Amino acid sequence: MPDTPSPTIHPAWLPSSAFRALGSRRVRIDAAGPLADTVRAEVSRACSLFGGALVTPEAPADLILTTAPATAPAAPATAPAASATAPAATLAASSAALPGSAAALPGSAAALPGSAAALPGSAAVPAVPAFASGSGEGYRLGRRGAATVVTADGPAGLLYGMFEVVRRGEAAFDPALPGERHEPAFGLRVLDHWDNVDVHPVMGQVERGYAGGSLFWRDGRLRDDLTRVGEYARLLAASGVNAVTVNNVNVHAGETHLLTDRLGEVAAIASTLRPYAIRVHLAVNFAAPVILGDLPTADPLDERVRRWWSDTTDRVFATIPDFGGYLVKADSEGQPGPFTYGRTHADGAGMLAAALAPHGAPVRWRAFVYNHHQDWRDRSTDRARAAHDHFAPLDGRFADNVILQVKHGPMDFQTREPVSPVLFAMPRTRLALELQVTQEYTGQQRHLCYLPPMWSGILGFRATGDNAPTLAAMLSGAPGSPAAAGSPAAPGSPAAPGLPAAAGSPVVQQQPAAAGPSAAASGAGLGGAASGRTSGGGVLSAVSNVGDDPFWTGHPLAQANLYAVGRLAWRPDRDPTEILDEWITLTFSDAPDRLRRTLHTLMDDSWQTYEQYTAPLGVGFMVRPGHHYGPDVDGYEYTPWGTYHFADRDGVGVDRTVATGTGFTAQYPAPWSDRYESRDTCPDELLLFFHHVPYTHVLRSGVTVIQHIYDTRFAGARRVAEMRSQWREMADLVDPAVHARVTERLAEQLRSAEEWRDQVNTYFYRKSGIPDAKGRPIH
Ligand code: GCU
């Protein structure tokens, strides 16, 4: 069946109007090559819309985009600004573009046919290893004479610098613009798509996808028309992302073949993403040598198996020379892995690392390994402990190009979890942080939930004290941290020195998440020249929330979550409110203050609002098993999944202490091991994650646990009702299609929030017999 293109696709944060300032200028591009062509096509289109022009080197320019320190004289300060009448020295649009037409952009199907002929060995392939630092992504933005100048380290930096000019709008041309250096904190900024090739009977086309079908796959094969993938690449580049994994970590039959006989489909995606400096990664099946190679085993120490991976990987790179790397979910939730052969995860990852090493690419190996056949009667097994129990003893045994990818919390992307202790336990291993943009447990893009405040708290968490490096600094390569030197730190080197003081929960931690004392204060990116180090070699990954929905993310305002991932990967210390403001400026280009203020009112604290009406105080889950939407307090209580709250007539929560519980608190370094161990010092919002307490236990806020449960559930649902009214007021300021979609989502959010409120409150009233002190209706 041919694809039926969606009639109107929302432009997200790149509406034409966002290009007004750039497009009304005289722009000179002193660079050549495929990415420079992409920049030229973008500028050319913008100029065709707003009256500016690409100009020759001799002509005066308002904006110069260059990959080397420019030597040509700057435009005279007296040069008149560009007007709608094109300047005399306008460059022909060259081969890159036919200004104004969508087909002119490099990501479009017209410019980049997905044909195999266009792919291998094309001149567009960058020569830099996929995860190497210093890969030309940085740039300097400043003024020279009457011109704004972007001086990029390399071709990708030119692209990022151009989008920085777009983001700044008129401010980019302010004669007082200060000189700034920008560089990404994380070298690899990757979105993992949990997209299935075949429609899975339970999980559908996109596992945990809430935005329609896959951008890549449809009913078992690659989409005919990849235009939308090209548009996606543009959006990602404009937010700072540089890699995409094109298939689900649960690698089913169809996806297993992407590695070999269906590699051409991956290559077609790669060639569509390449003009925007985005590399393709593939989730691979550990059992592939058996399934695809007819070998009797997938034992990672078997020579035949190692050779198979090595030969197969060589073929992947022969087809896609800038291939990004592998992602592996092994021995987890039914996926095959090294345990079958009595081997360790270091053995398994090492085999793939050896196959990838000659190509300078990494394998991302997921740490999400736990027993999903647990007996709920067994109180000694604690799923939260699993990743640390499995992986910490292997520290130092992973190959150089293995990146252990760790979910941000020890459980599973809950609304509130402590930061995973694995991230502080393996100083001799490269570690990646895995976030979940798709809102599996945070309202499934029916609820408005702006997640960056959570992420920012995670990135800013200082495991060993106020003066210690933040998690972002540790992962992105601050001096002394594992990622810093481009190779794992020396054996025995501490993860982070220092003494305790910071708050222990993502919410409380609002300070900048950057490289602590060494973060550049000038507005330059983490790792900028001012901090004395080069671009970060670390990895930030996130599970994508995108589908083929006309709004990309189902809920139009969930686009802000996607946008923020890339922005935080460049600057983890950015204030989430500031990022939201930037997104509003781009997306609602001419947003009046009333709309801007309302969007902030609706979104800034929406994560905390969601938390208020769902599972309380970090206990997690309480969702309907299977699809994970809506309340079901005991839904997981007697299942094998290890996700329990242990509510009884006296109290609730999981005892994870060393003294009387599972001992999980000991997986943290001091001071957090001690703080989490004691009810008195454990942050309120994580109390039930770490402790089983009586309902009458008084929180640090001064309120009892049971009263807190009632109060916050009522407050949360009430807040959603207010949000709905506030949005209604925006009807005259927003595109009717966007307004209608958000209105529909808020109606469902309110229905669901009231259901959550009533089920959670009623459940705990019936368990405890303690009435609400304020006498509100509980059923
Ligand atoms: C969660 C999610 C699964 C997913 C898994 C993973 O358990 O519900 O759908 O496969 O995480 O991260 O691998």
Automatic annotation (TrEMBL):
Residues annotated as domain Glycosyl hydrolase family 67 C-terminal: 553-776
A single Gene Ontology CC term: extracellular region
Record-linked InterPro entries: A-glucoronidase_C_sf, GH, Glyco_hydro_67_C, Glyco_hydro_67_cat
GO molecular function terms listed in the Swiss-Prot or TrEMBL record: alpha-glucuronidase activity; xylan alpha-1,2-glucuronosidase activity
Domain Glycosyl hydrolase family 67 catalytic, residue spans: 182-470
GO biological process, one term: xylan catabolic process
Matches recorded under SUPFAM superfamilies: (Trans)glycosidases
Low complexity bias: start-end ranges: 478-523
Gene3D superfamilies cross-referenced by the UniProt entry: Alpha-glucuronidase, C-terminal domain, Glycosidases
Region annotation Disordered: where it falls in the sequence: 478-531
Name under which the protein is recorded: Alpha-glucuronidase
Species for this entry: Actinoplanes xinjiangensis
Lineage: Bacteria, Bacillati, Actinomycetota, Actinomycetes, Micromonosporales
